[in-house]
Amino acid sequence: YCDAIDGAGLTMCVQLNIHGLKVVGNEIDVNTENTGQKSYESIYSLLDSLSPAYVQKFGEKLAVKLANLQQ
Predict the structure, then answer these.
(1) What is the pLDDT of residues 8-50, one digit of tens each?
(2) Buried b (16+ CB within 10 A) or exposed e, 24-59
(3) What are the residue ranges spanned by the domains of the chain?
(4) What pLDDT is attached to residue 11?
(5) For position 31, what pLDDT does the model report?
């Protein structure tokens, strides 16, 4: 298990196993293991699905890098 906190304060307890990554709690070190949760192949796909703050920040950084390439 590991804990993740996104830039907006969304807290997740994440389980990593052979099926991938799965959110098992909404607090640090708290495993409520909801078996209905989806498994994700990567931390990026998990954050892309669950964290609007991650998606926004990723888009902003990508736009800056693309703008720098045009100069």
Answers:
(1) 889 999 999 999 999 998 888 888 876 667 999 999 999 999 9
(2) bbeeeeeeeeeeeeeebeeeeebbeebbeebeeeee
(3) 4-70
(4) 92
(5) 86
Which amino acid does the sequence have at 15? Q
CATH superfamily assigned to domain 4-70: Hypothetical protein (hspc210) (3.30.2280.10)
Predicted TM-score (pTM) of the model is: 0.77
C-beta atoms surrounding 71 within 10 Å: 4
By the 10 Å C-beta count (0-12 exposed, 13-18 middle, 19+ buried), 6 is classed as: middle
The per-residue pLDDT for 52 is 92
How far is it, in rounded angstroms, from Cα 35 to Cα 48? 21
**Which tokens sit at 53?**
């703050």
